[in-house]
Design brief:
- This protein is mainly α.
- The chain has one domain.
- 69% of the residues lie in helices and 0% in strands.
- It is built from five helices and no strands.
- α1 packs antiparallel against α5.
- The relative contact order is 0.20.
Length: 159
């Protein structure tokens, strides 16, 4: 696989996923902002946190794209539907395992056990991130599925 194309399609998949997540916020289906969550690891200033968050989020999207491409190559399936399935599984893992652990490692996030403080002002996601809205699990799964489908479509075109 050509490295330049993998970087390009990793960026396009990240943009597609971001559009789904931002649309879900705009329509009021979810309050989850992964760039804000990521950016507040770096700084407590929310306006700068969003900028840092988008930068780190894009880098993370590229890195995960390489993991997806390794998955496609390891199982020998290079299709959009397998990418979508991988994205769905990735989304379930994110919602069930990763987001509920954030309060224990995020320097600016309150936990389910300890409330908001002057330094820890972010609300914890809770199980499947429902603290950010009841539509958050579905929109997050949709966004991850779109991400995987875009990467799978590129892998299908490339092979």
């Amino acid at each position: 696989m050509n490295l330049a194309y993998a970087v390009l399609w990793g960026l396009l998949a990240t943009v597609a996923m971001t559009m789904v997540l931002r649309a879900s916020q705009g329509f009021g289906w979810s309050r989850l902002s992964i760039p804000l969550l990521v950016g507040t690891f770096v700084t407590g200033q929310r306006d700068r946190a969003v900028v840092w968050g988008y930068l780190l989020y894009a880098i993370g999207g590229w890195l995960f794209a390489f993991v997806y491409f390794l998955l496609f190559d390891s199982v020998g399936i290079h299709t959009w539907w397998f990418g979508a399935l991988a994205g769905l599984v990735h989304g379930v893992f994110l919602l069930v395992s990763v987001l509920p652990l954030l309060p224990f490692i995020h320097p600016r996030m309150a936990s389910e056990y300890h409330g908001v403080t002057a330094e820890r002002q972010l609300e914890p996601p809770g199980f499947m991130a429902v603290n950010y809205g009841y539509g958050t699990p579905l929109t997050t799964l949709a966004a991850q599925t779109v991400y995987g489908a875009v990467l799978g479509a590129f892998a299908q075109l490339a092979n």
